[in-house]
Write a structure and sequence with these properties.
The complex is a heterodimer of chains A (379) and B (138).
Chain A (H helix, E strand, L loop, with lengths): L11 E11 L6 H16 L8 E5 L8 H5 L9 E4 L5 H14 L5 E8 L22 H16 L3 H15 L13 H5 L18 E9 L1 H6 L8 E10 L8 H17 L8 E3 L5 H11 L7 H6 L10 E2 L4 H4 L7 H14 L12 E8 L3 E8 L1
Helix pairs in contact in A: 3-12, 5-9, 8-9
Chain B lengths: L11 E2 L11 E7 L5 E2 L15 E6 L2 E10 L11 E8 L4 E5 L2 H4 L7 E8 L8 E7 L3
Antiparallel strand pairs in B: 1-2, 2-3, 2-4, 5-6, 5-8, 6-7, 8-9
The chains are: A alpha/beta (379), B mainly beta (138).
């Protein structure tokens, strides 16, 4: 049996930063990334020279993009790793930064995600064809799952679209969100049809941006005189990949397994979760993954959503950042941005989107493959 | 029609199985170690147990619709929207995602049985025929 994060040295997030997620611009990825890293360093109030190792997450920029970015912080010769794990790239970088600190190899480590949309880079052929390989894209898969959920639980497309209404409302309060506009249910459901009942406002925008998180040991917090009152403990870091048992809704089955494992590692129950950031690239995903945590029984998400249970100020604030639907999904940064939102919430620094009394938060991402990463943080 | 013209990728054959001779069979595989039946055929290893002790197995082409959705917008070349995709649990075991026959797509619902049918292939370099799933007559 291997060790868990909780079996090793405690790990804390001491600094977070972003470059706002936005539509594709002329801004170079270097500028995007440096903004997030410098903000994270300023947030932690430590110099770059104290960062002993870096993990750079990206999925769409090509090979070895980290060094041309990090050199402008001062090239001190620290180790550097590039991480690509589809949508979960940022979460993966964060996990490995935590592992490096927890293991005692380093005391202060950076995880940064940066990305820009670029010419489509599809995975090389596996050599195995399929009947619909050129007809199924992510929104097609989630249109299928939307219709399946709606039929199984007797909910209407307008009910599922309420997730987008909530998340756009939250995103309007987040200065780092790509979409910062409150949307009505009519605006959401009356958009042009894409697949099934999905409309553009029920699908994440994939733009550009950056997010950074600095993790540190207790020893580093003391040595660098970091404000311990703003340091947020990483209780668990859990990862897995899909099994052969669930061919259709593999992301949900995988998420349920990893979320439950992560809560067990963190010794928290679903009722303890005050804030969730889940991989809501499409409205249906928030339902499926929220139910996977156990915060509501399967099929009960919509009634509880309508009661306000998942709004900021409700039982558990889900996607207070706006989630992928409104905050955006630049891919490399997304999982690290989720960590930043949870940290902001647990510090009580989220301003108008603050979940009052938030003490425990869970961040969840899946990635094509499928892989799943879950982190639980606590004040 | 020339019987020798198979799809380059060998996803299906024009002839059916003995259980369903009037519908083209899908070409899948079976793991001789754990019994897992899969589609499409591949020789890399069993997803369930990792064994490379695999053999070809034809599937009847009949199954139950788990879910389906009409695609209104699609940017990939070769497929013109609208079309309807479905996830189907084949009676031989595997789940298959494929396009529904436009003639019956609008009246095909979750829980319906569908069967394979051949349609002319319109995409280049893909052979003469393609497969659609058609709502089975009850």
């Amino acid at each position: 049996m291997g060790k868990l994060i909780g079996d090793l040295r405690p790990v804390y997030v001491i600094g977070i930063g972003w470059h706002r997620y936005q539509y594709l611009s002329e801004t170079s990825y270097v500028e995007l990334g440096l903004k997030a890293i410098r903000d994270a360093l300023a947030d932690a109030d430590i110099p770059w020279s104290e960062v002993q190792s870096s993990y750079v997450a990206h999925a769409r920029l090509g090979m070895a993009v980290g060094r041309p970015m990090l050199r402008h912080l001062g090239a001190y010769g620290q180790p550097l790793v590039h991480v690509e794990n589809a949508s979960a790239s940022g979460s993966t970088a964060f996990r490995h930064a935590c592992i490096e600190v927890a293991s005692g190899i380093s005391d202060v480590v950076l995880a940064v995600g940066v990305d820009k949309p670029s010419a489509a880079r599809t995975r090389a052929s596996t050599g195995i064809p399929s009947l619909a390989d050129d007809a199924i894209v992510p929104f097609t898969q989630f249109a299928l799952l939307t219709n399946q959920y709606a039929a199984k639980h007797g909910v209407k497309p307008q009910d599922i679209a309420l997730v987008a209404v909530k998340n756009h409302s939250n995103g309007a309060l987040n200065p780092n969100a790509q979409r910062q506009k409150v949307r009505t249910l009519e605006e959401v459901v009356e958009g042009r049809p894409i697949a099934g009942t999905l409309t553009p406002l029920q699908c994440t925008p994939v733009g550009e941006g950056a997010a950074a998180a600095i993790v540190a040991s207790e020893a580093a917090i003391k040595r660098l005189s970091v404000d311990a009152g703003r340091a947020i403990r990483v209780l668990s870091s859990t990862a897995g990949s899909e099994t052969a048992q669930e061919p259709l809704n593999y992301d949900s089955a995988l998420s349920r397994r990893i979320m439950q494992q992560s809560m067990a590692e963190a010794a928290v129950a679903s009722r303890d979760l005050d804030v969730l950031e889940v991989h809501d690239a499409f409205t249906i995903e928030e339902l499926l993954y929220a139910e996977a945590t156990g915060i509501c029984p399967e099929g009960r998400f919509i009634p509880m959503l309508k009661e306000g249970a998942f709004n900021i100020g409700g039982k558990c604030a889900i996607s207070p950042s706006g989630g992928l639907l409104a905050c955006g999904h630049p891919v490399g940064p997304t999982g690290i941005g989720q960590i930043g939102e949870i940290v902001t919430q647990l510090r009580g620094e989220a301003g108008p989107r603050q979940q009052r009394g938030a003490r425990t938060g869970l961040a969840h991402m899946v990635g094509v493959g499928a892989v799943c990463y879950v982190h639980i943080l606590q004040k | 029609m020339d019987e020798s013209k198979e799809q380059p990728a060998a996803l299906f054959q024009r002839t059916g199985t003995s259980a369903l001779p009037d519908h083209p069979a899908l070409i899948g595989g079976e793991c001789l170690s754990c019994g897992n039946v899969f589609f499409p055929k591949q020789r890399f290893g069993c997803e369930r147990c990792g064994s490379v002790n695999l053999k070809e197995r034809t599937l009847t082409g009949r199954g139950k619709v788990l879910t389906c959705a009409k695609v209104h917008e699609h940017r990939s070349s070769g497929r013109e929207a609208p079309f309807t995709v479905a996830a189907v649990l084949m009676e031989d075991g595997p789940m298959v995602r494929a396009l529904l026959d436009p003639a019956t797509a609008d009246v095909t619902n979750i829980g319906d049985m569908v069967v394979t049918s051949l349609v002319p292939e319109t995409r280049p370099n893909r052979g003469e025929f393609d497969i659609r799933l058609t709502r089975a007559v009850r």
